[in-house]
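input
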Amino acid sequence: MKILLRTWTWQSGGERSSQDRVVEVERLRIGRGTDQDLELADVKISHSHARIVRSGRNVLLVCKPGATALVNSEPARERKLRSGDVIEIGRYRLTISAGAAGADLMIEIEETVTARDEKAARQAKLRTSLDQVLFSRRRISWLLFLLVLLSTLALPAWFRFGAPPAVKAMTSAWPGDRLWMPGSSSPSHAYFKNDCGKCHQQAFVPVRNEACLECHKDVKHHVDDERWAALPAFAQSRCEDCHQEHSSQIALIDKRNFACTDCHANPGARFPGSMLEAISDFSRHHPAFRPRVARYKAATRQFDWIEVSQENPQELYEQTNLKYSHEVHLSPKGVKSPNGLKTMKCADCHEVDSSGISFKPVDMERHCASCHRLDFDPENPSRVVPHGNPAQAVQSIRDYYARAALTGGVKAPDAPAVVQLRRKPGEQLEREQARAALTWADRQSRVVIDEIFDKRICSYCHTVQRTRDPDLPWEILPVNLQERALAHTQFSHDAHKQEKCESCHAARTSKKSDDVLLPDLKRCRDCHGDADSDAKIRSGCTLCHGYHIAQDRLMADSRSGSAAATVSGAKP
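output
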């Protein structure tokens, strides 16, 4: 993706000037770090804060976990961008517009307030003058105490409960109870930081859940079963239990484990009859992973998803309807290809997507066709059958041999003379000759169709079955490839890019496509420890797990329950 970065600055004469820079990257990295493609020098911005990536025809803003931005004055962690959108990160404003000078996209960068002005304003607030001190410290203390009591308690209370409407209308500039705030508002709520009533809707009453849900309408609870939601542990919970504003946190998430382990350390005590396993920490008391695996139901031609513990190896297998061996393809001796032996690596098929988090789907044409050719006539190796649609493949073979029989010049010793004889262009066959030619074409088509489906091409990788339909004598069972094994976690491959694939995935010894190539908990514990660990990466519950029933693409389980079967012969 080619991006034009236009940075605007103010000159001493009050004029604006711009400086253009063109970058060509797969994803534009934005943050405070010097290794970022767009470096924003603001201590309020994370080292690696966000990315702008392409997803199909769309351009997305994706914030890193724990970071956020304002898009058109609305908080967003992930948002599809359009021309004219304004992104605010720290003291920087990024304006998105259509590309210019051959670029796919143009981003205009401008500081809303310079670092010097921000520092000067902060120093001005902190500057204290003692020139007018006329009283003792005690008297000054009592005077200030009474002043604070009057200005931040008595007057705000009078303004709210006893002042006439005309007086209430003039109180917006009065600092009042805002002086009691323990800290500044988080970046997520910065756009209404001066409107205290947005959250604090009743005096001397903690912020209610309803106030949060007025904006966060799509946020779901931790459970979707109404019977569970009615239990005190959920019904009496408050948003502020985990999300504490004015706490100087960039992300309003309580990352302390006890917020989770209060319930999950002994789920049976609070939720009788629960099937949840107990978990109190990561290093010692965490259950084994339970990856989702597919089971194919022939009666419905659909895949069902079930969760199987890694402690139950007999049930830990996939039914993909594919025949594939990672061991063969990753052999250090190489695999046979039309151009000789080829040594393959994981990245030949598993390509990281633009987000850097997951991988693009494996595609037959892009990843397999260079070795697994789909030609069916040795005399014409450039003619191939289409992949992914058995009906089209069968029809293309029939059309090919019908045309060859009617055109003539076929080099097949068992073909009738009318088929072997080369004819002039446009020469018409007699009725009996045409019937004989098409009879041979039909017979030859059946032979070739049986061969490619049952012996040579399709059955090499797919599970095929004969049907009773003469028009479509073979079917290919639906194919299913695992997209996300652990449905209740979020995992970023980009964060682990320093590791080799085989350090977690035993692909080089996997002989069948049924194998579940997921590392176990012990492998994660080699690097990750508890939230208070000093010897390993500190890993609290929220590093991998979310609380709310997910709505974003990282946490959503888009294929839960019964996965609809793809059409027969669907592309992997």
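quick obs: The longest helix spans residues 431-456.
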